[in-house]
Structures are given as structure tokens and as C-alpha cells.
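Possible regression after last week's pipeline update?

I re-ran a chain I had predicted before the update to compare outputs. Posting the input and the new output here so someone can diff against the archived version. Not blocking, just want to make sure nothing changed silently.
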Amino acid sequence: MSSTSTRLSPSTTPIEAPAAEPVLVTEHEVAVATAAARAGRPTKKQKPVLRRHPKRHAFLERALMAREMDRL
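New output (post-update):
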């Protein structure tokens, strides 16, 4: 019977990463990134849509209809 699990031995010597150079960001890159971030936001706040008629509730609707039927 063969073993299906294999174990990897950890490396005894540490791997050193190359020294990173400082990264400079130009003014143009900042301007482009700022413009891209602002593109998704609306510039003006939208006013809520005002209803021309007040909302009518079902219980009031039934009472009003009954009153109109009594008038006939």
C-alpha cells in the first residue's frame, strides 16, 4: 500500500527579499486617481420627489367608498 500524503520539509535557510526602492507618486497620478474616485459620486444632492396627492390608506379608502355609496 502506498502512502498518498507527502510531507515537505521546511527550508533551513531563510530567503531574503531584495531591497525595495522608494516609490514616488507623481502629481499627475494623484490627479487621475482623485478624478476616478470622484466620478462615481453624484455632484449634487438629489431632492426627494414630492407627491402631488397624499397617500391613501386601504382602511380610509373603504370608509370613503361606503360614505359615497350611502349618498347614492
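Follow-up from reviewer: compared with the archived run. The mean pLDDT is 75. Marking as no regression found.
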